[in-house]
Amino acid sequence: MGKWYERTENAILTDEKKEVPNGVWIKCPNCSEIIYFKELARNQHVCFKCNHHFRINSEQYLEILCDAGNYREFDSMMLSGNPLEFSDPQPYRDQLIAAHQKTGIYEAIRTVETLINGIKVNLAVMDFRFIGGSMGSVVGEKIARMVDRSITDKIPLIIISASGGARMQEGALSLMQMAKTASRLARLHDAGILYISVLTHPTTGGVTASFAMLGDMIFAEPGALIGFAGPRVIRQTIGEELPEGFQTAEFLLKKGFIDAVVDRRYLKKTLNEVLKFYYA
Ligand SMILES: [Zn+2]
Questions:
Q1: Where is 267: in which H helix or E strand?
Q2: Of 21, 68, 119, 255, which has the maximum CB count within 10 A?
């Protein structure tokens, strides 16, 4: 499957042109339909014609999911250090500053407390714009703190993932976040509290290999790329051609790795149904 977020034609949205001004027409990268941007936004950035889910950022997910768009955010200014003094091609600190200037946020995940149709939840939303939604120490720590709050307050947890994997700029410290988040979620499980994981395009690497696949229920958006290593690496490793649609949400559903493929326009309703079943 091609990565639609990579530029293949001039008219396609890229990370650099993420903030599209209202009133312009854009072309669906999947079916080439020309869509008025405001209409697309009203349709929660899903193509009317082919159902292609355009990538949206953390702010847009919060708008879609939180009752009346209201939420209380935690640790919003938690910052990463540069423990390895990493510099490639520029100092890690400068990469963090550039990511902040591009997005207005300080890390690749935001953790909030909010209501979904009146039911209180802890919600985390990853943001792919911030260094590819990569997981470093701050992402791990914010998730750990949120899990702790869920245990203390006995409220369910939802994480919307979008990630290229572990953050190489933090080396082994990033890999440790896999163990850290997974062990925290084990405590949540022992406490009998619900955790719903929602996978969006793309969810890969260390995030897939830790908290994203540990949900009591796992949903994914249509067409989302979900996997650990990329298809090229797997092909080279096993020396075989991969099946059609490999690593898409639909393929994973067929193989039993996830519980449902959920259209973004029904995501809030679906979460509400599950929450009501457990908590109302
Ligand atoms: Zn389309």
A1: helix 267-279
A2: 119
The end-to-end CA distance of the chain, in Å, is 40
pLDDT score, position 177: 98
CA of 123 to the centre of ligand 1 (A): 29
Determine the distance separating the centroid of ligand 1 and the alpha carbon of 1, expressed in angstroms: 15
CATH number of 56-279: 3.90.226.10
Block means of pLDDT (10 residues each) for the chain, length 280 residues? 50 50 82 94 96 97 97 97 90 96 98 97 98 98 98 98 96 97 98 98 97 98 95 90 92 97 98 93
CA distance 245 to 249: 9
Task: Give the integer Cα–Cα distance in Å for 95 and 139.
Answer: 16
Span from the CA of 4 to the centroid of ligand 1 (angstroms): 11
Question: How far away, in angstroms, is 99 Cα from ligand 1 center?
Answer: 29
Instruction: Please name which of 156, 141, 145 lies closest in space to residue 217, comparing C-alpha atoms.
Output: 156
Residue 63's H or E segment, with its range, is: helix 58-65
d(CA 20, CA 108): 21
CB contact set of 40 (below 8 Å; sequence gap of 6+): 26, 46, 47, 54
Give the tokens for residue 91. Answer: 């100092």
Q: How far is the CA of 57 from the centre of ligand 1 (A)?
A: 19
Separation between Cα atoms, residue 100 and residue 80, nearest integer Å: 12
Quote the ligand 1 centre to 48 CA distance (angstroms). 7
Q: How far is the CA of 53 from the centre of ligand 1 (A)?
A: 8
**Global pTM value:** 0.90
pLDDT of residue 231: 84
The structural domains of the chain, with segments of one domain joined by +, span: 1-54, 56-279
